[in-house]
Amino acid sequence: xxxxPAPGATALPxxxxxxVIVVGAGLAGxxxxxxxxxxxxxxxxxxxxxxxxxxxxxxxxxxxxxxGRVRTEHHGGFVLDLGAVLPYRAGDAPPGSVPGPxxxxxxxxxxxxxxRVHIGADPEDCLRACGLPEPPPAVLEALxxxxxxxxxxxxxxxxVRDAFAPYSTAYRRAGNGELVHALLTGTGPGLRVAYGVxxxxxxxxxxxxxxxxxxxxxxxxxLSARAAVVAxxxxxxxxxxxxxxxxxxxxxxxxxxxxxxxxxxxxxxxRARPRLPWAYAVTPDLSATMVLARDMGPGVGxxxxxxxxxxxxxxxxxxxxxxxxxxxxxxxxxxxxGDRDRARNDGRDGGKGLGPVVAHxxxxxxxxxxxxxPASYGxxxxxHPAVRRPLPGVxxxxxxxxxxxxxxLPYGMAAALASGREAAAxxxxxxxxxxxxxxxxxxxxxxxxPGPAPDHERSPGARHAPRP
Length: 468
Ligand SMILES: Cc1cc2nc3c(=O)[nH]c(=O)nc-3n(C[C@H](O)[C@H](O)[C@H](O)COP(=O)(O)OP(=O)(O)OC[C@H]3O[C@@H](n4cnc5c(N)ncnc54)[C@H](O)[C@@H]3O)c2cc1C
Known about the structure:
By secondary structure, the protein is α/β, with parallel strands linked by helices. The protein has 2 domains: 18-85 and 176-248 and 389-432, FAD/NAD(P)-binding domain (3-Layer(bba) Sandwich); 102-170 and 260-368, Polyamine Oxidase, Chain A, domain 2 (Alpha-Beta Complex), CATH 3.90.660. 21% of the residues lie in helices and 24% in strands. The chain has helices at 27-37, 123-130, 137-144, 177-185, 234-241, 249-257, 313-317, 321-334, 374-377, 413-432, and strands spanning 18-23, 57-61, 72-75, 78-81, 102-103, 109-113, 116-120, 171-172, 191-195, 198-205, 208-214, 220-230, 259-270, 280-282, 290-295, 302-309, 357-371, 394-396. The radius of gyration is 23 Å and the shape is globular. 49% of the residues are buried. Flavin-adenine dinucleotide (FAD) binds next to helix 1, strand 2, strand 10, strand 13 and strand 17.
């Protein structure tokens, strides 16, 4: 059973000019929409109070659910985070929401090399235990891909240190989906989401921003707003702006320089709660990059989640869900789960210690995250804060745009949320400023496009199946 449909669902309004259209209901888009729909100080439901108050915001989301790469599913008492998995920071919760508890996770990791399992407090500890202070490339790559989605050589050189970063396996009891819910519900009626609506182009016409999209029935619709936030991953954003006259060349160049890497995640849930000596196992010699273990408490059980990152994601993505679950169980046998007293895994017990799989879920992420490369974010790369404003009234948001100070890590929930906040502030400043002169006409006036008769005011009803 998955989470219920997100609140705030709406049909597409085509007869009026909106204040703001947000494309994409991931954390970046939801945070931007939340801040724009909320009144001053994040107060809910403060509409029609001028520039400082809540604005009329419509979010367009291609999928049938909100959250994007935050995807929390509920299966028989188990909370599975198939996208962002470590807990979001409490300080990133929207004003007025109360984050649920974080369950502490041990940080001990196992590094599995050949037939040996080395356990340590952090990667350096493990490498010392293996007698590998200088890790071979495959080991370095697997440690790096605990966090990143591409080969270390493709990244800014400074990022290689991420291979050695310790990390805790704490998690939010209710999953990161609670943040998505808080963003969706925190502003009263001002924030609405049209699900199953895919944006196809963003441009300007008549002094307004125009968003051409296709609703869930395949009907082409054009919406107009005074401003827009485009909060889709880089390649999708580039495609949306492709035909827009006047798009800043540096925004195009930056978006074109972005590369993403894939990930596949397979979660298996068991009623047993073996006391594992590690919280996650990095497995350079196996078909997965790593396996994360979660004790979900008495009466629930244990979740073991295999991550197939970068070059290991493709072969995994080609398997059916059943094959992927079998493969993951094979990995667990290699890790000698249930055989807690042995450091070597030569006592494979067929996973008997875990018992049967009682729930499973698979997520395939073709674009799991950005590759932070010299061409995109390096000193000679194309990144510049102004790339986030490709057209008057159009603001870009997304983890890839969440560069902080001199530490470019444009990835993760914090980066996505920060970019959403910044985009919202930019929109407010833009709408409060002098109105730009009307653009010369470049296309048909806003409104439904020719095609099948639109049925815009119908409730979304049955939605598209969730798609990673
Ligand atoms: C397996 C995995 C594990 C992760 N673990 C962590 C972690 O532990 N900690 C952490 O901080 N981060 C983690 N992340 C990264 C984190 O999930 C992302 O950085 C963050 O959620 C990105 O948010 P976003 O809003 O920028 O983009 P997205 O979440 O990708 O949102 C973009 C939205 O735009 C929609 N969209 C795309 N195209 C269109 C279109 N044409 N029209 C309409 N809508 C469109 C998409 O459907 C999506 O909902 C993980 C990611 C993955 C995949």
